[in-house]
Structure to design on (329 residues):
């Protein structure tokens, strides 16, 4: 019954969107792209920029239409739709892909990266390319890696300045087993929840807090209902821009090359927008009265040993951890 409902829902979306739509002729293509974030957010604008580059590369034959603000669904739903070819392009965090593409798990491990620069160096090199290649057997084509910033805890109850302050608090996390286990390992209670439900959850007291980066904390207005932001920076789990393998296989080799090149070119634009947005978002929330707390992460890092043991549980994943740690910037 569940499979019938899933198929029916997918079919309904396919009918509404038309899959990879063709325009006036069979050569004109519009790729539908999904993002949970609002217009103006760096990832949304980066995919729009990719569309502009792609249009230029193909003489206007291929365009990208971005559906922002989770118009096509939350990340978990759009991941499935992308596999079926209902959505052509999708910007999602690595975390909900952990159970689908195992290599993404390592990049989401707490404190795996030492800095933003370290994360970018890793993702721009052979390690990042290897992770993107791992998407294809799962029905997706990994095109580019975007920033997701450093994620930190915020809440509506009290300042968090040490690991002990987390005990017993309820925090929303991405719908990811790794994030659930990470928060629980810190003594808090993890509550997986769709991004679009977090504001009301904080407002009603269903959850005490959540964890995210500066731009998400600000653009979602979560600072209005959770004013205590603690800079533990536990995760720099990246984002991926991926394409449905079904949609990809409909393209000519030349158009596939153009799509891949345009996606890679969008990374620089995304980072430029991201760095500016981080600074702007921090100022907005501070001006609005959010209380920012610095944290010594040593105790947080020490609590993560069981997470590494559980999630880097194969020789391949352990090797990936080592390769990342050996990458210096």
């Amino acid at each position: 019954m569940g499979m019938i409902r899933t198929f029916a829902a997918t079919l309904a979306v396919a009918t509404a969107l038309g899959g990879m739509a063709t325009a006036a002729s069979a050569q004109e293509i519009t790729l539908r792209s999904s993002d949970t974030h609002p217009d103006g957010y760096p990832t949304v604008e980066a995919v729009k920029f990719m569309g502009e580059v792609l249009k230029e590369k193909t003489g206007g034959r291929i365009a990208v239409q971005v559906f922002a603000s989770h118009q096509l669904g939350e990340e978990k739903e759009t991941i499935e739709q992308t596999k079926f070819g209902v959505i052509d392009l999708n910007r999602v965090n690595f975390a909900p892909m952990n159970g689908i593409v195992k290599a993404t798990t390592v990049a989401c491990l707490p404190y795996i990266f030492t800095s933003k620069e370290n994360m970018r160096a890793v993702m721009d090199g052979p390690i990042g390319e290897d992770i993107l290649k791992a998407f294809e057997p799962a029905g997706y084509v990994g095109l580019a890696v975007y920033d997701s910033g450093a994620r930190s805890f915020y809440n509506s109850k009290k300042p968090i300045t040490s690991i002990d302050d987390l005990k017993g608090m309820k925090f929303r996390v991405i719908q990811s087993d790794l994030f659930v286990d990470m928060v629980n390992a810190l003594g808090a209670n993890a509550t997986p929840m769709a991004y679009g439900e977090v504001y009301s959850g904080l407002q009603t007291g269903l959850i005490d807090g959540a964890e995210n980066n500066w731009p998400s904390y600000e653009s979602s207005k979560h600072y209005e209902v959770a004013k205590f932001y603690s800079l533990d920076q536990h995760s720099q789990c990246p984002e991926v821009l991926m394409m449905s393998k079904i949609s990809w296989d409909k393209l000519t080799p030349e158009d596939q090359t153009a799509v891949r090149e345009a996606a890679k070119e969008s990374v620089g634009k995304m980072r430029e927008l991201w760095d500016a947005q981080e600074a702007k978002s921090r100022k907005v929330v501070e001006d609005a009265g959010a209380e920012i707390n610095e944290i010594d992460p040593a105790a947080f890092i020490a609590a993560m040993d069981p997470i590494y043991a559980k999630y880097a549980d194969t020789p391949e994943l352990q090797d990936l951890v080592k390769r990342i740690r050996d990458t210096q910037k």
Q: What stands out?
A: The chain has a mean pLDDT of 91. The first strand starts at residue 21 and ends at 22. DSSP finds 14 helices and twelve strands in the chain.
